[in-house]
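Hi team,

As requested, here is the filled-out complex form for the 3-methyl-2-oxobutanoic acid run. I kept the field names the same as last time so the parser does not choke. Let me know if anything looks off before we queue the next batch.

— J.
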Amino acid sequence: MVLSPRLTPFLEGWRAGRPLVVLTAYDAWQARLVELAGADLLLVGDSLGNVEQGRDSTANVTLDQMVYHTRMAARGRKSIPIVADLPLHSYDDPEAALESSKLLMAAGADAVKFEGTPPGIAEALLGAGIPVMGHLGLLPQTATDFKVRGKDAAEAAQIAAQARALAGAGCFSVVLECIPTDLGQTITQGAGIPTIGIGAGSGTSGQVLVFHDVLTLVEGRKAKFVPRGYTNVGAVIQETLHSWAEHVRGGVYPSDAESYH
Ligand code: KIV
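And here is what came back:
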């Protein structure tokens, strides 16, 4: 497998012990903002089903949609590496996974991510030279609840074994979603590859969050791991749009300076 040179700084950062910063982005301008903010890696996540499409699940996101959003994000980035999610049913068998991944790579991804450890998928992609990021713990594509995973010893051991298997197969990194801090730390110590946590505590190699969650662009219940302290950009947008609407209604907009003569 040949890693894109764009992934080199991400891995160098990990080797140097720097906490890695990953954010999702789904279009050109979000990608630009994420890169300008200094993130190490950009994820075109199938969370776009939630935050862009307004669905309550990622399960109906299609491969065509992932390709479209990956192409937009790639257009907006300069050099930040892009990982694109393989949506549910686009990797039902190794052949499908390979064809799907080729489309995402052609759209501008530097690597792909899939959930769990379906047999033969990582091996098929890595064997074809496609870099792979794993995703363990809570797996939103198939989850029927959003409870923390790996709280009991058996499930914790299973997730740790899956992480070792993905690393052993050659995955360059793994996302750990909604697991106890201790488990995140244990997996990180033994994995030999960067672990990127979301609701996995402070012991992972890095953190990933959804763009809309950091900025509070969507309404609704926030998961425990979503930070509360930053500017509510959704409220700022709403206020700005409301001001403009009031200016239109009050005859203030357009002013003479905003008109052609
Ligand atoms: O789809 C996504 O955004 C993800 C992150 C939550 C890791 O997979």
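Two things worth flagging: The pocket of 3-methyl-2-oxobutanoic acid is lined by residues 24, 43, 45-47, 85, 135, 175, 198, 208, 210 (CB under 6 Å). The chain has a mean pLDDT of 97.

Thanks,
J.
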